[in-house]
Amino acid sequence: MVKKYSYIVSFFIFSVAMNMQAATQINSLKSVYYHPSEHAADVKSIELGNIIFYFEAAQRVDLLSVDKVGQHERRTFFFPLAQAKNDDVRNMVEELANISSKGYSFKLEEVEKPLKGIRLVIQFDPALMGIAYEVIESYDLVKTSIVFRFNNKDFLNTLRNKGDHVLRLTHNSHKPRVIIDCGHGGDDDGALGCHGIKEKDINLNIGIAVAYLLKKKGFDVLMTRIADETKTLSERVNFANSSGADLFVSIHSNSAANDTAVGLETFSVVPSCVHQATASLDSVHLDLILEHHKSRLKKSRALAHSLQASILTTIRPIHENLRDRKAKQAVLLVLLGTVMPSALVEVGFISNPAEAARLNNKRYQRHMALGICRGILNYFDEIAS
Ligand SMILES: [Zn+2]
After folding, report:
1. Which of 82, 107, 319, 376 is the most exposed place for a label (fewest CB within 10 A)?
2. Per-residue 3-state assignment (H helix, E strand, C coil) for the chain
């Protein structure tokens, strides 16, 4: 326990020291999202909700006060010198100005005095939940994401009693439950590729084929969309977190200004980039949370590698030169917000004429789907248990 804390403290000293010269500069809040995790009674979720902030640069979080309001605890956090990047972001902040859910409520606002910044006041029932947050740095250290999590104490107590078999705790079904998320859709075309191809259509065709293959293998499959419909990123995360799923796989197609770019890449949140910070939890619960997140992130990374390898092996017999752009780190919302192991596949570049034509071909789509399905099967065989 002591070791973990000293690690956390030294990380913050390190990050503060690194940003000394930027200490008087305004940091832009690029977006903020709230996921309430309203799960059904037969589903257990480790979280009762989370709030995700994306900042342009490294951002400090101060805990200003902790006080009691009746049975509830109130914690006031402050992001010094943070400011909404533009009116769109200001609207996002205003939409979350006053949120109340089962067992907790929070207020979010931009303030000018005594110091410019963004204030987050969380009031919650400590018998039902504990607050913790994590700071995630991208490799380039330009972007910082901060995730506040409302941890479900009921779930933590079950974990404490049953050990690490988290996956089988989340729902009653005996089959593994997998979410297939076909990127974009409806009003959102995603990338526009060569030959008039739209990303949303490629993603959906492949995703439907993956779902079909997984169902044949006995999996319980849920899709965030099954047609050309508009779904926000937060709606996808809420859907996944409310369903008690064991795994989340998102399918996208790439696009680049340089039309020679080709190849396959898979993203996940990498454990080494995530730094857990202060929590309103006792040390036993905090340990469980830290273990759980560490295990989830390791599984996410392993899932990304499994998908990448299986797709390459499945596609190369029909397209020998499929370029391996590797499994990589990303802090995309569907990966940060979901509570189960998750990865995002970029199946290829529709901005490249030859790759676009392949991705639009039904046979190639079926092979891609088979590769993704094999990656998921391999994950459950080798990694999940
Ligand atoms: Zn996309």
Report:
1. 319
2. CHHHHHHHHHHHHHHHHHCHHHCCCCEEEEEEEEECCCCCCCCCCCEEEEEEEEECCCCCCEEEEEEEECCEEEEEEEEECEEECCHHHHHHHHHCCEEEECCEEEEEEEECCCCCEEEEEEEECCCCEEEEEEEEECCCCCCEEEEEEEEEHHHHHHHHHHCCCCHHHCCCCCCCEEEEEECCECCECCCECHHHCEHHHHHHHHHHHHHHHHHHCCCEEEECCCCCCCCCHHHHHHHHHHCCCCEEEEEEEECCCCCCCCCEEEEECCHHHEEEEEECCCHHHHHHHHHHHHHHHHHHHHHHHHHHHHHHHHHCCCCCCCCEEEEEECCCHHHHHCCCCEEEEEEEECCCHHHHHHHCCHHHHHHHHHHHHHHHHHHHHHHCC
